[in-house]
Write a structure and sequence with these properties.
The protein has 90 residues and is α+β, with helices and mostly antiparallel strands. The protein has four helices and two strands, in the order H-H-H-E-E-H. A hairpin with a 2-residue loop joins strand 1 and strand 2. The termini are close together.
Length: 90
């Protein structure tokens, strides 16, 4: 368990050093996805969406009401703060 925690901490530190990608880098992927959406297989769409999205968060906000938040890879990781807190409070 300690070894896994050590690896998790080191991976989190690597993510901090990693430079945030620029939105412009993803324009060709977005354009291709939109142009070919109707002709792509589900697995191909999934692969392209994985290149664009860090996470998709589904949140229930009440009776029959849900919220869907998309977090693209070019924006800061909204969970990064939580990851740092977990390092200190496993």
């Amino acid at each position: 368990m300690a070894k896994q925690t050590d690896v998790t901490v080191r991976l989190a530190k690597l993510q901090e050093v990693e430079q945030q990608p620029m939105r412009e880098e993803f324009y060709p992927v977005v354009a291709g996805l939109l142009e070919e959406w109707d002709t792509l297989l589900a697995t191909e769409k999934n692969n392209l969406l994985r290149k664009l999205l860090r996470r998709v968060a589904l949140t229930g906000t009440g009776r029959g009401s849900e919220s869907i938040d998309f977090h693209p890879v070019w924006e800061p990781n909204p969970w990064a703060t939580n990851l740092k807190e977990e390092e200190h409070h496993p």
